[in-house]
Amino acid sequence: MDEKQYSLLEHLKELRRCVIRSLLGVLICSIFAMFFSDEILTYLRKPMMLVLGDSAKFVVLVPQEYFFMQIKAGIMVGIFLASPWIFFQIWLFIAPGLYKKEKHYSVVFVLSGAFFFITGALFSYIIVFPPMFKFFISTLPLGIHGTYSVGMLFGFATNMLFAFGFYNF
Q1: Verdict on whether the full-model pTM lies above 0.85
Q2: Domain limits of the chain?
Q3: Number of other residues whose CB lies within 10 A of the CB of residue 140
């Protein structure tokens, strides 16, 4: 462990510095991802389109919905792209409280944390989404036709991706 003792305010300053750096990393990656937001939204619709087949139609419920979905898609992908940086910032915050031989695990922590977070989300997208959508659609009784909003599908998909990503981490 570091020989230096930190006060509560010093710990809070260090935490603030790590949070700000993490948010800046997410911001930079999100701005980059915004250029591909239409492709991201199309990719998120694919599992549902596979289940619905030719009848796959998506709607927007309010005029600004698709615009905000583009922004949210950029932020979501920005978080995934910045995850190694975020895990590195977490490591920088906790490293001063560790012994020297424990600090050697930093590369393993950062890389494995990002890897498992992303693979959990990919597992959700590839393995879980198609049967889950098929099940939900099969529960609709006769005479009820589903109309799916881009925003609602995106919110559901985002929740699942992050849930599986964090669970796997």
Answers
A1: no
A2: 8-45+62-168
A3: 10
